[in-house]
Amino acid sequence: MYWLGFVGDRLLVDGQRSPLLRQPPEQWEPMIELQVGEHRGRSVQLLCFDAKELPTGWDDAGLRSLMLEAEPELAPILGRAAQLNSWYRNHRFCSRCGEPTRADLGDFSACCDRCGYHQYPRISPCIIVLVTRPGEHGEPEQCLLAHAAHFQTERYSTLAGFIEAGETAEQAVAREVMEEVGIEVKNIRYWQSQSWPFPHSLMLGFYAEYAGGEIQPDGVEIVKAAWFDAQSMPELPPKLAISTTLIEGFLAGVHHQL
Ligand SMILES: [Zn+2]
């Protein structure tokens, strides 16, 4: 058995900076304990502790860096554990009547025994899209990448945004691209998805083709955007993100097979 221990939203690590604990903190009672997966043939149990300080002698590490460093099959388990930890911490009271909820570990719901309301883990669908266009005058094909205001380095990435109530994923693609960089797109094609536990998104990855307009960054979320070809790629996002997979797919010609 391995344990993944969260104290508040902080993920505990052992002396080797591994989140897979062989022993949970002694004399600490978890608020929630449930299985979140299997790793190397062992059950992985999530432990959620309700405390402000870490137990004496323990350290924590950031989820994003741990997922980047983790073995490929462990990263989704870490993401699932983080989302469920966040879910139970933030839904301890019924949103309808205010009564304390009871965690139903069978379907991950937070149940209210007073009014019967069941709340389920929040998952927020989000589109992420790589827009492409043929090169002019025999030049190579290009893709549109953008530099967001919150990026801490000079990197560029794909465009993304949350799906709004009543909207299809394809409508969200067209709206987000128009809002963020002012261009029209066509031939919107779904490719693949990724759970993104920061804090609870489901990223739906698309390719789309340029249909018209000039690039005009909105100046709020996006401060710079430009067309790049395979020979002129800027600094790109870390490997973990689906944006990287979309860009690598473009370089490999995946979007022509969809
Ligand atoms: Zn209630």
UniProtKB/TrEMBL annotation:
Q: What is its EC number?
A: 3.6.1.22
The protein's required cofactor(s) are namely:
Mg(2+); Zn(2+)
GO CC, alphabetical: cytosol
Chain ranges of the Nudix hydrolase domain: 121-250
Which leading EC class covers this enzyme? hydrolase
| Family annotation (CDD domains) | NUDIX_NADH_pyrophosphatase_Nudt13
Report any Pfam family annotated for this entry: Zn_ribbon_NUD
- Quote the InterPro entries the UniProt record gives: NAD-cap_RNA_hydrolase_NudC, NudC-like_C, Nudix_hydrolase, NUDIX_hydrolase-like_dom_sf, NUDIX_hydrolase_CS, NUDIX_hydrolase_dom, Znr_NADH_PPase
Keyword field:
Hydrolase, Magnesium, Metal-binding, NAD
Q: Molecular function (GO) terms listed?
A: metal ion binding; NADH pyrophosphatase activity; RNA NAD-cap (NMN-forming) hydrolase activity
Its catalytic activity? a 5'-end NAD(+)-phospho-ribonucleoside in mRNA + H2O = a 5'-end phospho-adenosine-phospho-ribonucleoside in mRNA + beta-nicotinamide D-ribonucleotide + 2 H(+)
Report if keyword NAD is assigned. Answer: yes
Q: Which GO terms describe its biological process?
A: NAD+ catabolic process; NADP+ catabolic process
Q: Which NCBIfam families match?
A: PRK00241.1
The record's similarity note reads: Belongs to the Nudix hydrolase family. NudC subfamily.
This chain's protein is named: NAD(+) diphosphatase
- Which species? Motiliproteus coralliicola
